[in-house]
Amino acid sequence: MSDDWAHQPALALGAAIDSGRADPREITDYFLDRISTEDQDNTVYVRVTADRAKREAAEAADRAKTGFRRSPLDGVPLSWKELFDVRGEPSTACSKLLAENIAAKDALTVERLTRAGAVLLGKTTMTELAFSGLGINPIFGTPANPHDPDIARAPGGSSSGAGVSVARGLAAAALGTDTGGSVRIPAAWNGLVGLKTSWGRVPLDGTVPLSPSLDTIGPLTHTVADAATLFSLLSGATADIHNVSLKDHAVLVPDNLAFDGLDTGIAKTIEQAIHTLGAKGLRIVHKPLPALDEIQNLAWEGASILIAEAYGLWGADVERRQKDMFSSVASRFMMGKRGSAPDLAAGLLLRDEIQKRYAKETEGYDAVLMPTVAISPPEIEPLLTDDAAYGQANSMALRNTTLGNQLGLCALTLPVGSDALGLPVGLMMQAAPGKDEPLLRLGRAIEMALAG
């Protein structure tokens, strides 16, 4: 038994299994014991699938003995957000509206990682129906951000339990979804790597939807290598991140929007990281990107595609059962009531036009760099009763990340230091649709450069 297992990268645990230094059964029991001890209030895990985990670990141990492991993550324990279907388990998206929704079979992503030998520890908490970037859920439970031992701060959402499960050593890696930042915000606030995949690269079959044209799936991990491995297993593509160099890449840093109104210490940390990358060979160009302002206006004003699609899916149920929901989430759904089908159609057309303009503005560059989140994790308590404060914090948390969803990009966040409060800061890089593999290569090069 090793105390080091709690915060080891997933691939490191896989390598220990491969070499015979660790047994998947012991690793799984270790994580299950930690969950039992560290998550007694069930704010990180909605439910633990201990029987399934033990069975899968035993099967992985048998394969390891014969030398026929299915993947580098065979026998490694992972957590899953509570909107992925797991056969025989409730799939509630942490909402009372779906309390009776029992999954008949595994989601396709769960099935793929199970075939790769990964061990399913359980399902993690989230914002109701995935509709917030803060991760606050007073009904099912809110896991406090582990980086402030004195003040209960937001974990980031909507994949709140996913981020905290990895940050607190309760899973080797986690699977979440990202519609407006729901992988990247909790990853950034918990000091993790978070990958928002390009729309369509990882199948959504067997997940509870929020916004069909924006929903994506992605991992929250300790390292870029872990994220690349999970992307490969989920998508069927190979993300080769070996032999990478900063000197092979050129990036843009926008002079508009993304750096506005940053909390104390975030700008300094991001600017220092960018300076270091430039000094180590990354070609960096600073210039305005007008398409960012355009897509920001579309995302938050009259023709919000996300709100329109979310209301179309859930509006009737939310309106009928608002008393069963956290009011700040319910009210956001109800914003979609004032929209119309023509508004949505117009929004989709405008989005396509802005995406084309953005592609021209960024042509010839590998990625755009910016802070992942503009604000530090806010205190939870005031946001439970003050809807205006909740709305302001939520908007600022989502401001930078939602740009990538609306523009159809893939994006990666890496931890690059701390803010004035000593809380983690994430650097986000966004690349063109379908460029997930080159983005991961750039991410690995940046990770290595900033490590020393």
Folded structure, characterized:
The protein is of the alpha/beta class and 452 residues long. The protein folds into two domains: 3-235, Amidase signature (AS) domain (Amidase signature (AS) enzymes, Alpha-Beta Complex); 247-451, Alpha-Beta Complex (Amidase signature (AS) enzymes). It is 41% helix and 14% strand. Strands 1-3-2-4-6-5-10-11-9-7-8 form an eleven-stranded mixed sheet, sandwiched between helices. The longest helix has 21 residues, at 341-361. The mean pLDDT is 97.
- CATH class descriptor name of the largest domain: Alpha Beta
Main beta sheet strand tally, sense and closure: 11 strands, mixed
Number of strands: 11
Name the shape in a single word: globular
Q: Total domains, how many?
A: 2
N→C terminal distance? 31 Å
Structural class: alpha/beta
Tell me the CATH superfamily of the largest domain.
Amidase signature (AS) domain
Helix and strand succession?
A: HHEHEHEHEHEEHEHEHHHHEHHHEEH
Low-pLDDT ranges = none
The helicity comes to: 40-55%
Average pLDDT, rounded to a whole number, is 97
What is the C-alpha radius of gyration, as a whole number of Å? 21 Å
The neighbouring-strand order within the major sheet is: 1-3-2-4-6-5-10-11-9-7-8
What amount of the residues lies in strands? 5-15%
